[in-house]
Design brief:
By secondary structure, the protein is mostly helical. 54% of the residues lie in helices and 7% in strands. It has helices spanning 3-8, 17-21, 38-48, 68-74, 85-98, 105-121, 125-128, 132-145, 149-165, 171-185, 189-205, 210-225, 237-251, 258-271, 277-293, 334-345, 354-372, 411-424, 428-434, 436-441, and strands spanning 14-15, 55-56, 254-256, 295-297, 311-312, 324-326, 380-384, 391-394, 397-400, 404-407.
C-alpha cells in the first residue's frame, strides 16, 4: 500500500496549507438550513444518540446516504455464509458489471445490489484484486450516465466498497471529477448527497494527496457555507449533512488545523441555528473535533512558551500521560458559542419530537463539555469508579462480537467510526476483523476491554 494508507490510518499526519503559510481566510457566508428533506436527517440525529452507554459494533446503516428503497436492499442478511458460494456469485457479478453489452437498467441495478451486498458482508480483496481499474471504469459509466437514480446511487455505493476493500492510489484521480460533476449538475438531490459521501470515501482511501484532501475539505465547506446553494441544492438537508460529516472525517487526517479552524468554526456555529437536528448535530460534532485538535502534547522543547492556563494535566495523574497545551483559539467568541451549546443541551420545545429533543440534548451535552474541557471525549463522565479510583472518562464503546469492546474516547475516533458505518453498514464488524484498512483506520490503542467490565 502507498504511504497514504498510513496517513489515512492515523489520527493526523497532514499539516494544512493555511497553517504552513499562517494565512487565515475570512468567513463571509451565513448559512441557515431549512427543514426540507428533514425526515432522513432526523432519523440520523435520533439514532446517533440512541445508545448512550454502549455503541454496538454490528449495526445496520443509521446514516445511509441512499434512498429508503436502496437501504432496504442493502440492509439484508450480512452474516457469514456456511459455504464459500458467495465467491462464485461475486465473480459472476463482476463479470456482469464489466460486460455491459445488452444489459438493462433493471439488470444493472440488481447486479450492483448483489455486488454491494457481497462486498459489505465479506472481505473480498483477493476476489477483486487486479480488477480494480476495470471495475472503476464500469462503475463510472453508470455514475456519469445517471440513467436512473437507483443505479447511480448503487454505483457510487459500489465504488466506495471497492476502494475500501482494495485501496488503489489511482482511484481518486479517476473518480474525483465525475463525482463532482454529479454533485454540481445532477437533478437528483439523493444522487448529490450520495456523490458527496462517495467523494469523501475515495478521498480518504483512494490515493488523494495532502493538497487534494485540503482542496476537498474547502469544497465541502463551500457547500456548508452556502447552505447547499453552491451545488444547486438550496435548503436541502441531506447534501449539507453529508458535506458536514465528510468534512469532519477528512479533517481527522490533518494534524494542524490552525489555519482552517476559524473559518470552519464560523460556518459550523451558523449551522447550529438550523431547523434540522441532523445539521445541528453534525455541525456540533465538527466543533468538538476542532477544539480537541487545538491541543497537543506538551514537550520539553516548549519551555515557557505557554501560560499555565493553556496547559491541561491528566486529572488522574496516569503514568505516561503527558500534559496537553492549547496551541490556538478555535473560535473568538467562545462565550457566545458556549451559551448556544448550553441552550441546545437543555432544549425544551414542541417543534421537534421527543426522540429528536433527546438526541439534541444528549449530543450537545457532550459537545459543550468538550468545548469547555477539550480533553473530554464523547460521553465523558467525571464520576469516580469504585474499582479503579479514577474517573470513568468517555463511556462510549463499540462491541466487537462477544470478545470485547473498543472505547471511543476521542472525537476523531467517533468521526471515523460513523464514516465506516455509513459505508459498511451491517458488515462493519466483519470488515473490522478481516480488512486491515478498516482496522487500522480505527485501531485498538490497548487490548479490548472485557465485556464484564463495561458499563
Amino acid at each position: 500500500m502507498h504511504d497514504l494508507r498510513r496517513q489515512a490510518l492515523e489520527s493526523g499526519k497532514t499539516t494544512s496549507r493555511k497553517a504552513r503559510s499562517k494565512q487565515a481566510s475570512p468567513a463571509s457566508s451565513r448559512p441557515n438550513s431549512a427543514p426540507s428533506s428533514r425526515a432522513a436527517s432526523r432519523t440520523r440525529a435520533v439514532s446517533r444518540a440512541g445508545s448512550d452507554e454502549d455503541e454496538t459494533g454490528n449495526l445496520s446503516d443509521e446514516t445511509s446516504f441512499s434512498t429508503n428503497s436502496i437501504d432496504e436492499l442493502l440492509n439484508g442478511d450480512v452474516s457469514d455464509p456456511i459455504t464459500d458460494a458467495w465467491r462464485s456469485d461475486l465473480a459472476d457479478r463482476i463479470q456482469e458489471l464489466l460486460d455491459r453489452k445488452r444489459s438493462s437498467v433493471q439488470g444493472r441495478e440488481k447486479c450492483l445490489t448483489n455486488y454491494v451486498r457481497t462486498l459489505t458482508a465479506q472481505y473480498a480483496e483477493e476476489d477483486i484484486r487486479g480488477k480494480e481499474a476495470e471495475l472503476v471504469v464500469a462503475l463510472l459509466k453508470s455514475i456519469k450516465a445517471e440513467t436512473s437514480e437507483k443505479e447511480t446511487i448503487l454505483a457510487m455505493k459500489a465504488l466506495s466498497m471497492t476502494v475500501i476493500t482494495s485501496p488503489s492510489d489511482l482511484i481518486y484521480d479517476a473518480v474525483c471529477s465525475p463525482l463532482k460533476r454529479v454533485i454540481s449538475d445532477s437533478n437528483s438531490i439523493p444522487s448529490k448527497a450520495a456523490a458527496v459521501r462517495c467523494l469523501g470515501t475515495c478521498t480518504f482511501f483512494g490515493g488523494a494527496s495532502d493538497d487534494e484532501i485540503l482542496d476537498n475539505m474547502a469544497y465541502l465547506l463551500e457547500i456548508v457555507a452556502s447552505d447547499g446553494s453552491f451545488i444547486d441544492a438550496q435548503d436541502e438537508v441531506d447534501p449539507v449533512v453529508a458535506a458536514l460529516e465528510e468534512w469532519g472525517t477528512l479533517s481527522t487526517l490533518i494534524d494542524d488545523l490552525e489555519g482552517e479552524s476559524e473559518e470552519a468554526a464560523e460556518y459550523f456555529v451558523e449551522q447550529l441555528s438550523s431547523s434540522d437536528p441532523g445539521v445541528q448535530i453534525a455541525a456540533g460534532e465538527n466543533i468538538a473535533l476542532l477544539y480537541e485538535k487545538s491541543y497537543r502534547p506538551l514537550t520539553e522543547d516548549d519551555g515557557g512558551d505557554f501560560s499555565e492556563t493553556d496547559i491541561i494535566a491528566d486529572p488522574d495523574d496516569t503514568p505516561g500521560v503527558p500534559k496537553l497545551v492549547k496551541t490556538y483559539d478555535v473560535y473568538r467568541r467562545s462565550d457566545v458559542l458556549k451559551d448556544t451549546l448550553s441552550e441546545l443541551a437543555s432544549l425544551n420545545t414542541h417543534r421537534v419530537s421527543k426522540k429528536e429533543q433527546k438526541a439534541i440534548r444528549s449530543n450537545f451535552a457532550d459537545i459543550l463539555d468538550s468545548v469547555e474541557y477539550p480533553t473530554h471525549g464523547p460521553r465523558y463522565q467525571n464520576a469516580i469508579s469504585q474499582d479503579t479510583g479514577k474517573r470513568y472518562g468517555s463511556r462510549m464503546t463499540v462491541r466487537i462480537h462477544k470478545d470485547g469492546v473498543m472505547k471511543i474516547d476521542k472525537w476523531w475516533k467517533l468521526h471515523r467510526l460513523q464514516a465506516l458505518r455509513r459505508v459498511l453498514q451491517g458488515g462493519f464488524v466483519s470488515h473490522y476483523e478481516r480488512n486491515p484498512v478498516v482496522f487500522e483506520s480505527l485501531p485498538y490503542t490497548t487490548p479490548p476491554v472485557p465485556l464484564a467490565t463495561t458499563c
